[in-house]
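Thread title: Can someone regenerate the structure for this chain?

I was given the following input by a collaborator and told the matching structure tokens would be attached. They weren't. Posting the sequence so someone can regenerate them.
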Amino acid sequence: MSQTATQNHQLSGINIGLDVELRKVFKVFNGEAAVRGVDLSIYKGEFFSILGPSGCGKTTTLRLIAGFESPTAGDVLIRGASMLNVPPYRRPANTVFQSYALFSHMTVWENIAFGLRIKKRGKGEIHDRVQEALKLVKMESFANRFPSQMSGGQQQRVALARALVNRPTVLLLDEPLGALDLKLRKEMQVELSNLHHELGLTFVMVTHDQEEALSLSDRIAVMHEGKVEQVGTPSQIYDRPQSAFVADFIGDTNLFRGKIEGAHPAMLWIRTASGLKMKVQPSDVSGEPLTSGAVVVSVRPEKVTLGFTPDDEQTNCFEGRLQNVMYLGTHVHYVVQLRSGDQLTVRQPSALHVPEADTPIFLSWQAHDCLALPG
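Best answer:
Regenerated them for you:
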């Protein structure tokens, strides 16, 4: 399912069907709640990612879908059927683990065929389906090799083939690319995306890698301390975060804590804790427009403009001094200390002239380029 299709579904309200539902799911370990009242609806054919820092409950949530854990309360459904008391091997879902979990004493062919043999499929069916799975992941020539004779990327492909050969309704991916080096990880991201489009299966992936989730997913659930903070498309999560945590966790941002001093349907006037006066366009991301009280203002580094003189056309303009300049090829990363004491990061496209550190500088951005979030 493409991002456009997901958005159209949300806008039209047409029920195209759900493959996975979590209803008020809790999971408690030794008196501590790892998952707290999670509600999720995952559509057929969707690439859905569960994203969050270590310990947020994302892997436990995936294990609840897979059946490796049972909910303390709530229900997990696949294709509308409750999975309570249904063991993993009887669920229409297969899991690909970060560690691959391949049998070292079996060849690639035997690893992929293992699940079908357990289900007592016929020899002819096993042969055809293993061949089909090998072709899908471009591993036909590796059928007789053992896991120790392959690279990490090749083992990952075999793990995918072993899951896909069972033709699951849902493919669960637990940090599937976490053990790969950066270059191979990028290549496998492309292959995973192509595989999803080719098969049309529902993919549910757990990851802590924001870029991976943003680039692969139709929708993302951001988790924090056992709860779902926000569910949305990658652009919604990045451009319209609903909490300071989501704004800070997804990509880079500059956060200012402050209070609303004035409100208008078209503008908020905010004074930060350090004394900066900002103008911010109102947002209803929290469900209701913010008109008073404590807020957190989020400004993405790429939305900030650098200049050597004040920019009268920009709504928010502040004086500072360059503290650090890092040339990163396609762009330059700046760290600026404002006169107020606030430190900001700025990301700009590479230019012929890059100012040196300790240079006086002005930072500016428009009211619509920052976001006020509940504080």
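Confidence is low (pLDDT under 50) at residues 3-15.
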